[in-house]
Amino acid sequence: MMPLLVNEVNFYPRENAKLHHTDKYEQVNAEDSKVAIVRRGQLFKGKIRFTRPYDEESDLVQLVFTLGDSPSMETTGSMYMKRDAVVEKHAWSAKLTDVQKDTLYFEISTPVDVPVGCWSLRVVTRTKNSFARQIHNYDQELYISFNPWNPDDQTYMEDSALLQEYVLNDVGKVWMGPVRTERGKAWVFGQFDTDVLRAVMFMLDRSKMPLKQRGDPIRLCRTISKMVNSNDSDGGILIGNWSGKYGSGTAPFDWTGSVDIMEEYLRTKQSVAYGQCWVFACLTTTVCRALGIPSRVVTNVVSAHDRDCSLSIDKYYNEAMDDTYGSDSIWNFHVWNDVWMARPDLPSGYGGWQAIDATPQEESEGKYQCGPASLEAIKKGDLGMNYDVAFMLASVNADVFRWRKDPHSERGFSVVTSQTEKYTVGQMLLTKKPLVFDPSGDEDCEDVTEQYKYREGSTAERVALMNGVRHSERAKRYYELASKVKSDVSFKLRDIDAVAIGNDFRIVVDIDNESYEPRNIKAVLTATSVFYNGVRAEQVKTVQGKIFVGPKKHEEIVIDVTAEDYLPKLVEYCNMKISAMALVDETKQCWADDDDFRVMKPIINIKFHDDLVMNQPREVFLSFLNPLDRQLTGCEFRVTSPGLAGRTVRVPAQDTEAKKRVVASLHVTPNTLGKIHVVATFTSNELKEVTGAATVYVLEG
What pLDDT, on the 0 to 100 scale, is given for residue 414? Predict the structure, then answer.
């Protein structure tokens, strides 16, 4: 008898997808699609139809699943189809469930730790008494992903309701802005788009990560943090750019979602221009969720960049206190990701959320990668718990030291402030609240600071940081040098919470002489536009001079800054830095402080005047009030939604006079039933990075 010849292989893409929580993927829902997307460690069904009836007594059917062109034992699943096949969580099996003449029905069980990716299948047939074989190569895509619903999977999340957010939600938010002026920006992750999953596979292939390691979420997430950026010249997805000049690519603030980036990456096979930290983080969540790894975007408001592993941020001033320098920096905000997994490589208690950072800041093991760092290790200051815990600890909890060049000091420097600024860094860590979306406000914001650090100023918080310092010789030297200095004049730079763009603002420093002697004080007060990573752009206004403060007296230093002063010098995201420095002549007491705030822009209003109906075009109206005393030219809106045909649409708007409403409209066609989210951005020659979002419902026709 000749071996069986395969006529058809069918893995029931839609039926399996519903059971495996993969029914949102576009490949599965495409008409006549045969692409299967399943989760590891969970049974999935299939059938094979042959050209002749199956003889259970003599025919043998072997299924050989392989990953990659040169499979190993870890990337091969080979099994004969049997009625008595036993399901075992660390092995492959193929259980024959029914035979109907020429068709076999079966269930496949994959190992719970099998590498994720796009697998190939060969169906090998022969008869029991012959070595003659027939081989059929299955020509459809078969993706196997992580399974956070399975208790045996390393990515398992016990509260499965949260997986609706951290794996299945394809629209989210990222918070941006200095402290007190942070605002959520909507983002379309789009992890279920056809090109996204293929681009993720292309990215992993480019990474040269051994295929057998792709089942380990620890190693895989570390690779993802490396490959989302392109700094290692390894063909990563996104090129970083903080220059403010984006003529040869897309400005970071113009992106509304990940799909356009992934489509370009897949189409061109080149790294895409441009990204900044929040774009890297949103793209990382897209990649992780596409693979089934629970992920969230986290914003650290006032984020330290510690270049020298001192667990402190060190700013240096010259003798006259009128210039600063140093390699460390503080970003207004910085965005990274948390991914969820068990950590069998660490002691018990260090699993759960792990921080990874795809923004290329510092090298780790010779590559621009960061994490996964256990949040529990960061919180406790346990630097020995891989990976990059020290860098993340400094990011959220470093102390700030200011040093003045001082020839009279034994070490050449003296401490500027009367005490270290212990409570500046990591003021808030923000992420999107699960299962909530507020398109026009921030009611969906969740503060997760306590997951990263103990309450600021508490004994536990100090102990955690000092625990980290104890493990770093360089950090110990810095903290030993920081000694208190005597002071009898107190200074306070008043906070500026927010300024509506086009409005004036005032800078005030309060000075209190607490001594019974008069004090002469040299002071410098400066307003500067800054990029969000702390790099200064242009000086807006500065005042310097001497002020006399009598015994036990109060004085103020004031600067008024007008819109005409700052508008021509604003850079992207409209961040401003106020810097104040003072030197007391009589006591040589030094003081310095900074405050960052954001000039706030309007929000785009998105309106549909008619109900949205599936597959029927509808007009959407976009508008906001021009806040400037000048005309807006070169106006363009960009609208993105995973629930609309075409996904991303650009529409020009007419030049708009000062203080008049910017308006535009376009026709869109809904292609998804139920609730959908719409995200919009606006750019012009005079005003950029205006955003808005809306949630609407699509009805059946």
Answer: 76
Identify the CATH class of 605-699: mainly beta
If one looks up domain 486-600 in CATH, what number appears? 2.60.40.10
Told to judge if 445 belongs to the known catalytic residues of this protein, a careful annotator would answer no
Q: Which of 193, 216, 338, 357 is catalytic?
A: 357
163-475: which CATH topology? Coagulation Factor XIII; Chain A, domain 2 (3.90.260)
Q: For residue range 557-593, list pLDDT tens digits in order.
A: 999 999 999 999 999 899 999 988 888 999 888 888 8
Q: For residue 416, which of 319, 300, 534, 307 has the smallest C-alpha distance?
A: 319
pLDDT for res 148: 98
Query: Where on the phi/psi map is residue 476: left (φ > 0), alpha (ψ -120 to 50), or beta?
Result: alpha
Strand order in the sheet with 605-608: 605-608, 618-625, 661-668
531/525 Cα distance (integer angstroms): 19
Measured from the Cβ of residue 548, the count of other Cβ atoms closer than 10 Å reads 11
**Predicted TM-score of the model (pTM):** 0.91
Q: Is 277 a catalytic residue?
A: yes
SS3 271: coil
Q: Does 3.40.640.10 match the CATH number of domain 6-145?
A: no
Where in the chain are the domains?
A: 6-145, 163-475, 486-600, 605-699
Q: What is the pLDDT of residue 478?
A: 57
Q: Is 447 labeled as catalytic in the residue annotation?
A: no
Catalytic residue, chosen from 334, 590, 593, 595, is 334
pLDDT at 475: 60
